[in-house]
Amino acid sequence: MPRHHQRDSNASGSQRQLRVGELVRHALADILGRSGVHDPVLEGHLVTVPEVRMTADLRLATIYVMPLGGRDVGDVVAALERNKKFLRGEIARRVNLKFAPDIRFRVDERFDEAERIEKLLRTPTVRKDIAGNSGTGKQ
Is the pLDDT of residue 23 over 70? Predict the structure, then answer.
């Protein structure tokens, strides 16, 4: 395989990193979905786990989370941080790895970015540009 293709595939992580990240994501989603964490903040929120990124050595998992509806984001992330030790142990039991990865939680801001783009597309100026381009056959 040419070098430039190999470099492009590593930009988002190796196949192993992606596979392990998905296993961790599914395990955590299952734990949170079954109310496996006894924390009043987490019990009052549905938390989605859209992505988990693993480091190349698989020792650190960055877990992106978003509470349903996007409310109380700071409280939910703080509750996950408080229960990090328990969650790490549960993930280690469910995902068979040589080492249990350290975990850190981050807010997934892709939803905010999608909302921002959607608002931009609805502005009169952009709608006018889109309507103008569609009638002329230009792109």
Answer: yes
